[in-house]
Model the fold of this input.
Amino acid sequence: MKLAIIFPGIGYHVDKPLLYYAKKLAVSYGYEIVEVEYKNFSKDIKGNREKMLEAFQFGVEQTEEILEEIDFSKYEQILCISKSIGTAIASVYTSRHQLETKNIFYTPVIESFEVMEQEGIVFHGTSDPWAKTKDVEEECKKKNLPLVEIKDANHSLETGNAIKDIKNLKKLMKKTKKYIEQIKEQ
Done:
């Protein structure tokens, strides 16, 4: 049995394009899906380290409650699909519970790299205001994480041009599919 856990961002819910289609791909490869849905996050956390830390801790607490009934020992493979602050929450949760996971990290905030310790792939937009491209590239190199960059894309991996965004989404999902296929073979 295989499990995929979806860790959204604060404003990027499980039904937004990246997580919606990644979830569909995981299902097509036989993963059971569990979605972590946070409630009542603080607003205006960007640029406020204290509020971001508070949101992160609140997210971890909610994740503990949401996932407490899961018997992880029955799964031969666990895939975490995470977005933004969810990348840090997934990393801390899996570390705390000593879970060996594979990871799809969509647009991690730069602070996420402090806790990202397991295998995965990182997706980043070069115009993401939450994480500078140079910093993301350095962190991925240090941690030996493959990096997929989308030129001129923001924190949602969108550029503002709908047609271009749809083409980019196709590229992102092809890379996501390839990663899922690679871990399937391990």
Observations:
- The beta strands are 2-7, 31-35, 77-83, 102-106, 120-125, 147-150.
- The CA atoms of residues 138 and 144 lie 10 Å apart.
